[in-house]
Design a protein that fits this description.
By secondary structure, this protein is mainly alpha-helical. It has five helices and no strands.
């Protein structure tokens, strides 16, 4: 969990335990009281997992396939030219 998620989890836990009010929690997290109540319900259901962003466990949609990645790495190793910009890289790929 990130520091932000840990902080949010701690504040919601303190709210559930009755140490701080929903209004105080909303001020601390800069969220509405309605959202704090939603987070409390989610926390009761899922515990700390309620604050972990769902996309953290998924691979990026922009990720290159392993085949393409390995061919780029291989090409880079074979090339003596110093590639400092993407345009230089594109030009070398066209020559290939």
């Amino acid at each position: 969990m990130s520091k932000k998620e840990l902080h949010k989890s701690y504040i919601i836990h303190m709210t559930i335990m009755g140490h701080i009010t929903v209004a105080e929690a909303s001020d601390l997290l800069k969220l509405t009281t309605r959202r704090i109540k939603q987070l409390k319900a989610k926390y009761r259901e899922l515990d700390d997992e309620a604050f972990i962003h769902c996309n953290k466990t998924k691979p990026s949609s922009k990720r290159l396939s392993e085949h393409i990645h390995s061919s780029i790495v291989e090409f880079r190793k074979k090339t003596d030219t110093k590639i400092q910009t993407i345009n230089t890289f594109k030009r070398l790929l066209k020559k290939r």
